[in-house]
Structure formats: C-alpha cells, structure tokens
Amino acid sequence: MASLKRKVRWTSDMKHQLVELWEAQECLFKVSTKSYHNQNDMLRVLFSEYDVSGGHRMALLVFGGVRGRRYLTGEAGSSLHTVSGDAFTAQKSVDNSCSVLLSGCIMLAFPLKFPLFYFFIFSCFGYNSVFCDDNSNIPAIARYFSTKGRYEDVNSYLMEDILAANRSILQLPSAQCHEIHLTAIIRHGTRYPTVKNIKEMHQLYELVQRNASGEESWLREIQTQWRMWYTDDMDGRLVQKGVDDLRHLAVRLSKLFPSLISEQNLRGGLIKFITSSKHRCVNSTLAFKSGLTELWNIQDQEFDHAVNDSLMRFFDRCAKFLQDVDSNPLAVVEVDKFKSGPEMSGVLDKIADRLRVPHSDITYDLAQAAFYLCAYEFAIKTVNSPWCQLFDEHDAEAMEYVHDLKEYWKRGHGYDINSKSSCILFHDVFSRLDRSATENKSNQQVSETVTVQVGHADTLLPLLTLLGFFKDTDALTSTNYATQTQRSFRTSRMLPYAANLLLVLYDCGAGDLRLQPLLNEHSVTFPGLTGQQDSMPLYRDVKERYKDLLQGCDFETECKLFGPSAEG
C-alpha cells in the first residue's frame, strides 16, 4: 500500500473534474429531485439512466453521499458549494469528519484503475459506516449544551434522515379533521459565537498554549494541531449548518402539512414570513424559503418577508423588563450564587487539574469558554473536539444548570414580567388563529394559511412561559440543584438551534375546531388542558384556558415602568 500512495497524486484538475461530474447529477444535490431522498432511486439513476463510467458512478455516489451531502470541502477548509444571495456564503469550515473522510477516499481512489478504485471506495465506505454511524463523533456531554445544542440531538431520528417527517405526532381525533392554519414561531439556525464568547475563547486558548502541561492525547492535540479559528467578525452570524437547519425544517413541515405548506399556497401569497432584523434571523428566513423553492423547483418568482422587531424582539421594547430584569444584577443573584458555590467550584478545580494549571487560573468565564468550544465545534463542524475532554458528565450537568438558572430568571418563570413581555406576540398569534377560524366558518378561503415567524431563543422562551409550559413545582435556585435533576425546565431540550413552536388549527366538521401545539416536532399538551384528546383540544377550550390573558396581557400596560417591581 505504501507504493500505491507514492504513485497517487491528486491534482486540482482531478478535483474539478469530479465536481463537474457530480453537479451534473441532480439526484445527488437537488432537493426537488425525488431520487435525492431515496438511496435505491439514487443508485438506479446513477447506474441506469446516466452515461457515466463505472468508476465515476461510484465516485459520484460517495461524493453525493447517501444522506444527500450538499457540498464537498476543498483545500484550506473552504466550501465549494455556494448559493446566490446575501444569506448564503461559503463557510470557511470543514463540514464534518465524515465528509473529510469520504473526500480523502475519493482523492486516493479517483486516479486509480477501475478495480483498485472500487477497492478503495468500498474500503472507505466500510470504515465510514463504522466511523459515522456510531457515537464516536458525538461528545458524551452533547445532551447538556443548552441553547447551543443541535436540533438533531432533540430529534435523534433526524441523524439517519434529516428530511424524515414524524407523522406519528399527528393523531387526529377523526378522519374529518383537516388543517386550516399553521403558525410556526422558529428560532434561527446554528450560528457562530458572539464577540464576547470569542474573546473568552481566545483567553482560554492562550492560557492552555502557555501554561498547560501533560501527555494526554487531547491536550497535545489542542496545543499542536488545533488552531483558534474564531474571529470577531463572525459575531453570531448564521453558519452553513444554520442555513441547512431551516431549509430542512421547511421540507419536513411541508411533508407534515402538505395542504398548508404547498407550492400553490406559496405562489398565491398565502404563506407569510416575518423575521427579527438580526442577520441570523433574516438569513434563516431566507433559508426556510429556499428550502421550499428548491423543493418545488421555483425559479420564476421571489417571496417577500417582513422585518418586525416589535413582534420578534419584543424584549428590547419592554421598559419594565429591561429595567427590572435585563439590566438588574439582583435579578440573577441565584445564578451568581451557584457560580460561586461548591458544585461549580468543583468543576473549575477539575478543569485546572486536567490542564495542570493553578486553580486560580480557571474562572467561571474560562470554564464556560471551554464548554462553548466543545458545543460550537460540534454544532458547526460535527466534530468531537478535544476541548470536550475538559468535562465529564457531572461537570456538564452543572454547566447546563448555570445556563438554565440564567434563562429561568431572565426569560422564564423567575419573574412575571419575563413572560408578560411577550404579550404582543401572544395576541398576534391568537388574532391570526381567530381570523382563520372566522374565514373558515364563513366558507371563505383562509387568507393566511401559514405564518412563519423567525426570531430568537429569547423570543420563544417568554412565550412558552406565558403559555405555562415547563413550570416545575419548585423554582430553580442555587441551593436545590441536587433535587432538580428531573426538572422539566431544561433548555437543552426546549431551545436547540432551530427550535420551533407550531400551532396548528384544524376543522373537524360541524363547527369542531381544534388546536394542536407541537414543540420541536414533538406533541405537547397545553398546561391545564387534560382529557382524552389533550394533544389536540377544542379551540374554544384553549381560549377559555387563556381567557385572562386574551382579555388582558396588554403590552403597553405590562411594560410601563411605574407600578410594582418584577416579582416571581
């Protein structure tokens, strides 16, 4: 094998030739092609319908990937795949280790004669199957990444097929039921760290390079191979994975609700798009639309979206929330107490011991930087970073709890104003549902079959809190960590990238309207509404459940500064 390696020379011409061959086969990259979604169809198309030589067929199949890889990474980690528009720029990062492995196999195999080509490719496929399908590429602590977690880790079936639609969540009470309106409130997709996080990551990296010692392989990898590639200009921007998060979500929702999310409704202006002004949200909205236009191969029409920060960034406009909670250090006193408590002190000491640096060198901010490096490397690149080795599962649980404490007291059930700041979005949602119900009752065409609203974790959490979701018996505090292991308020499950709350209105005949809530494509139950069909209650029962909010919850009144201070 050593002599073979000396004879193989991969050139840029060979790479470009392979790229051209791959791009000619729509079944490998075009989501609107049926064979894109079916491995057997893909094989049939490649081996029967296209005039491609045997070796090139296999190269194309591997290059495209049985899971529909959209692009191959080239030299210097620069993606070869770009899509027009401000939202879609080539990412300067390797997609993941599986793509790298397959690309390397192709690079070795492509110049070889036909039999050896097959040997290399199938050998790579066999190794890749072991490498990618087991859990070696998933950090052991991935389930604790809070709001920095991947959507697939909340829906593990998506790791096998990212476009799989879980129709088991649609348990209709009768065959007469059909959906008439869908509101989708969606968090943006995977993003880069913020400038603040990036600066802390640089501080940690410099400390490890300068002072850490030891012979562990993960530490040697950080010090000799890993390079700090995060830069300030990234500052929370959407990554390619984030674009894919929303594109894929759009396709899955079109499968779940084909009568609502349809080409006819999109072309007819019955699907509305609203977004926060932040670039990661605007670009996520563009990605969602792209998922639909690619699915139906729409090239002759563009679709507008509205920027509305009053709805999607209401927290910036609620004076009482800003004064009493957001800029009030006393509002997060429980967070600060836990950071300086025994559980977190133990985590910091263990990190210092693993790096063989003085305990005083490791602050909470540096520990968080290490945790975020592990989380971001996995979310963006799908790699199990050596930084992850600084934490065991108990450490990760404590890191997650700090984040949950912060979200609980700053956006969740900690203070009443946290949820009341979302009154404006709450009323907007129900006004759309009411309008659709009225139009449907009058036998009119529902004027807005789908509303897609893209915002932030800070958009979703206050609304979920207002609706009563994830409220535990006891408040989260700095002293009850040990008894909160089974808490429902867990941001890792609630708010991954691309998290979404779906409210689906059904007409089940004879004036029987029902409303189904779905969170992250899972069936959930409105708190306080239980019964035989609690996952899809009568719409009038939902309105009765939230009667006080519907009759009150005035944004201007709740957010004015005079009046009592925020209380839990």
Quick synopsis:
The chain is an alpha/beta fold and 568 residues long.
Helices and strands in order, then pairings?
Blueprint: H1 2-7, H2 12-23, H3 39-49, H4 54-64, H5 97-109, H6 114-133, E1 178-187, H7 195-211, H8 217-224, H9 240-256, H10 263-267, E2 271-275, H11 279-295, E3 306-307, H12 309-312, H13 319-326, H14 333-339, H15 342-355, H16 364-381, H17 393-410, H18 416-420, H19 423-441, E4 450-455, H20 457-466, H21 491-494, E5 500-507, E6 513-519, E7 522-523, H22 539-545, H23 547-551, H24 555-559
Helix pairs in contact: 3-4, 4-6, 5-6, 7-16, 9-11, 14-17, 15-17
- Provide mean pLDDT, rounded: 83
Which descriptor suits the 3D outline?
Answer: globular
Overall strand count: 7
- Poorly predicted runs are 1-10, 29-41, 43-133
Strand content: 5-15%
Order of neighbouring strands in the sheet with most strands: 3-2-4-1-5-6-7
**Major sheet size, sense and barrel closure:** 7 strands, mixed
Structural class: alpha/beta
Total number of helices: 24
Between the first and last Cα atoms, what is the distance in angstroms? 68 Å
As a whole number of angstroms, the C-alpha radius of gyration is 25 Å
Percent helix range: 40-55%
Structural description of this entry:
With 568 residues, the protein is α/β, with parallel strands linked by helices. It is 46% helix and 7% strand. It is built from 24 helices and 7 strands. A 7-stranded mixed β-sheet has the order 3-2-4-1-5-6-7. Helix 11 links the parallel strand 2 (271-275) and strand 3 (306-307). The longest helix has 20 residues, at 114-133. The model is unreliable at 1-10, 29-41 and 43-133 (pLDDT under 50).
